[in-house]
Fold each of these.
Amino acid sequence: MTASPMTRRVFLSRGLAAAGGCAFALACGASPGLAGGDYYQRHRAELLRDFAGTNQGAAQYLAALHGKALARELCAEAERGFGDLLPGLPQVGDEQNVMIEYLPVAAWYVAYYRPFLKRGLSAQDLGRMICELNLMQYKATPADQLARQGREHFSPAYLARMKSWAAWTQKRAYPANWVARYIQGDGHDFDYGYDYSECALVKYFRSQDATAAAPYVCINDFARSRAYGTGLARRGTLAMGYPICDFRYKQGRPVTQGWHSEVAKIKKMGG
């Protein structure tokens, strides 16, 4: 079974935990490989529809802060921009790459980032919008559903798939792809983790002259982990200027990092 394109609800509930590599591999159920074709072209209509749904939430959020006229104008421009960006998204292995769905979502950020800047809004404003929408979605999701999804991230089947995916990335078959290393837990401080030496999202943001937006994507990982009870701890990410992304998960551990701690890091790194 291959993964289906993200809907607005799925995007928000997953919190764009893109760098962590943990959001949808379980649902995907596919082993990493080198499938052919153009994922983005085949799913173009669905991806456009999903962005339009996300845009409705963004429009409501922006209207409350900046008025309906600006929100309508900004979101219309973002929707056109996303359609223009789709054909240029990089190839990273098609559906059998369990992370591929995050590249269209990265294009969502770029699509918003450009009209945000034109209207005097910043990358931090964009990051805050996405974080707030994510938090709203988690609050609307039943706690038992979140807990069940969180437990799945520690199942043997899930971990085996992610080990396989990380090993595949080490082959570097696609220059635009992630490169990750699975880290076995130490039995005390964490259950498992990942070290990322390359991030497809960072590469994409850089190619689109939108690197300032990249660090704010990473912040969503903590809200998601807190909701799922997966106990994420992380010193930093490539997007923030650190040499690696060092994700460490421990089931049930309180998540102490979030918007304020990570924005402070971004500012310290010159972002």
Amino acid sequence: MRKLNMDELNRVSVEEFRQLDKIPVVCVLDNIRSQHNIGSIFRTSDAFRIMELYLCGITATPPNREINKSALGATESVSWQYFSDTCAAIERLKNEGYTIIAIEQAIGSQPLQEFFPEEGRKIALVFGNEVAGVSDDVMQKVDLCLEIPQFGTKHSFNVSVTLGIVLYHIFHAFKNKIQNQV
């Protein structure tokens, strides 16, 4: 077996990426404190072609050396906006017809593997702070809550790992929409 070299990966340029269809998903980062997590989230968001990232509250924004260490250029390909208040970002998304979905352990949460978005539905996925999770005021505004089942002694994943797991699942639900470009 041989690894593929960079030329064999057939990667698109940033300009080409911007023209590709995206899955109808906005990821909302609710006060993420680690700049390395933010960079990793940019990179994963690029891989799964989301519409946009909303960076909220204390979440750092590009350009930022620490974000760039793990983003590896994805801050140039993934669209993003900054909001000082996560609830304001949520209200904007609701007004634009998005279904707001928190990724959190909560009463009434639905297991991720049982969630399949409806055709034509735009969704906003809310990911919370590494210690406190999704803030209580944001939880009051969500339409649905998804939870990743876990079976070990810990009760949470790193936020960038959580985002990767969730986007992998969601991307495959929307994959037919962008099949000709995958």
Amino acid sequence: MQPKKRVTVVGAGIAGTWQALLFAKAGYEVTLLESGDPSLAQAAAYWAGGMVAPDCEAETAEPVVVRLGRRSLDLWRSYLPEMPVTGSLVVAHARDRADFERFARLTSGHERVGAQRLGELEPALAGRFRDALFFPNEAHVEPRRVLRLLHRQLEAAGATIRFGTTADPRRLDGTVIDCRGLAARDVFPDLRGVRGEVALLETQEVALSRPVRLIHPRWPIYVVPRPGGRFLVGATSIESEDAGPVTVRSALELLTAAYSLHPGFGEARVLELGAGLRPAFPDHAPRIRIDGERIAVNGLYRHGFLLAPALAELTLAYVQNGTRNEEVMGWS
């Protein structure tokens, strides 16, 4: 019996976790190294919305992101059958109809629902919008919880996870998969950080069963339900590498937008205000760079939970069979 081939993954965020998981399930001897602690509070995933929404993302994302996202949705459902696939909704106030119609033209996989059907899907939004776009095949996860679940799956598959361990991928032996995010600028000089800001709210005045996106020309937001009457309110990306606290202006815009979606958010408790930096390339598309047995996966931008499973599948196929995907892979 031949010994298992060893694979080391550096970075235990969403990208590295999925890489480690698929290799471990395929029978490799996997070690996952992470410089931070098990909370992963320093990772981009910590502040993520956790939406697996390939059809919605077609509004601004490259076609490869949408295609990989659809494959990722299948992988999420396979490895996490309890993941809620309740779809997502897109709404807009009357003054923003032009942007709403543009969103409808640029995306697919949705049905336009009237006010009555919207009220049936989300009673909390009854009478608030005249129609909506319903994307029935989309899903969402709670990032902090789901990373713990995936790490448990990893350990059950025989992998080793070492937190508090800083590693230079160039100094490790064997097959090494570099998922360090912004720390990998030594490999990707054109990598940049894109700021994303969120608020975590708690209220019993609003109940939602799926993510809702509110179209707005200046501060479009998404509201993602969490267990226990909690909601993550997030904004689109900001071209800034400032990893500091959320500003007063940003907080006001996030909370005002949430209030405009439903006035019940006016009485919500603000549990957290935070910001994370997402690693991105100029074209906002992901890359897998291969240099012998060194493989670097990066540039997931704001699509970490959408892309990580499919990118891991591509990496595994390359290591196992030499299968190449020219859309995202490059060689040194």
